[in-house]
Specification:
The protein is α/β, with parallel strands linked by helices. The chain is 39% helix and 19% strand. The longest helix is centred in the first third of the chain and has 22 residues. The radius of gyration is 18 Å and the shape is globular. The two termini are 32 Å apart. Bound molecules: NADP nicotinamide-adenine-dinucleotide phosphate. The site of NADP nicotinamide-adenine-dinucleotide phosphate has 30 residues, from strand 4 and helix 5. InterPro entries: Epimerase_deHydtase, NAD(P)-bd_dom_sf. Pfam families: Epimerase. This is SDR family oxidoreductase.
Length: 263
């Protein structure tokens, strides 16, 4: 099938592309790097001609809820309009486990995205997942101030972006669910601060890690492990320590703008 991957160069996008190519699909990536700004959506319908399914893993790094909502609404709205015009049969979107009722900027954007998808003119599947193993590296890259990395107190169940990418391709190949598929979470519970310390150790970084409890419902949900997903979620198999020793760690790209944790 012909598959378009919005955000196909990102932490998870590159794994979606690799999984799709390994399964013999014809892949088109939609990123600004490839000349497609999904926030403006210019020439998008023409680009989607002949595409069977779109996997949307585009993202923005911002601490502003307004900006996050604007980004995800613009990108999702433009994609869905262009997909409808081009006759695309399936839109698969990636979201985050545990975002309901939590006052985080990125989560506000994801909820706005899910709300648009609820009225989609194109059949949809939404896959919620927990933080990626790559998230520890994203935090280390954005929340480091001189000799210290500041990490929110968080009990999480991280999953390998590689497994998320494979899952999204499987979903794109299948019949649209018409809402949320079964959540996907990682194999083990981990403290985010420990992950960053282990990452620093493997990379030979001599930097302290300061664990800080974030205020409000967001801080509480992170600290208490409310973002780990329920017992009925599907479980990934790759542990953080296996990921640390893999080539996937070295390939992590730092986000472009902003600072601070996103999920
Ligand atoms: N990171 C996590 O731990 C985590 C956990 C659960 C779910 N998620 C979800 O996974 C998705 C992807 O996250 P990620 O961490 O993989 O993101 P990322 O590494 O920051 O990659 C973002 C991708 O979006 C593209 N992009 C950004 N702005 C764009 C624009 N205006 N037009 C076209 N493309 C644009 C980027 O390419 P260009 O810069 O070239 O445009 C890049 O390919 C998000 O929806 C996020 O909510 C992430």
């Amino acid at each position: 099938m012909r598959l378009a991957v919005a955000g196909g160069t990102g932490a998870v996008g590159r794994h979606v592309v690799a999984a799709a190519e390994a399964r013999g699909h014809d892949v088109l990536t939609l990123t600004r790097h490839d000349g497609h700004d999904l926030e403006t959506g210019t020439r998008l319908a023409a680009a989607l001609a002949g595409v069977d399914a779109v996997v949307d893993v585009a993202s923005v790094v911002t601490l502003s809820g307004r900006r996050a909502r604007e980004f995800f609404r613009n990108v999702t709205g433009n994609l869905l309009r262009a997909e409808r015009a081009a006759g695309v049969a399936h839109h698969v979107a990636l979201s985050v486990v545990g975002i309901d009722g939590v006052d985080d900027a990125h989560y506000a954007g994801k909820l706005a995205q899910e709300a648009l998808l609820a009225d989609s003119p194109v059949p949809v599947t939404i896959q919620r997942v927990t933080q990626f193993h790559e998230f520890a590296a994203q935090v280390a890259a954005t929340a480091t101030y001189g000799p210290v990395t500041i990490v929110p107190k968080a009990l999480i169940r991280p999953v390998a972006a590689r497994e998320v990418g494979a899952r999204l391709v499987e979903l794109a190949e299948g019949t649209p669910v018409g809402g949320r598929a079964r959540d996907l979470v990682g194999p083990r519970d981990e403290r985010l601060a420990d992950l960053v310390r282990r990452l620093h150790a493997v990379e030979g970084v001599r930097r302290g890690v300061l664990e800080v409890r974030f205020p409000g419902p967001f801080g509480r949900s992170l600290a208490t492990g409310a973002t780990r997903g329920g017992a009925d979620a599907a479980r990934g198999r790759i542990t953080f320590d296996e990921w640390l020793r893999s080539g996937d760690r070295a390939a992590v790209r730092a986000p472009r703008e902003g600072a601070g944790a996103r999920e």
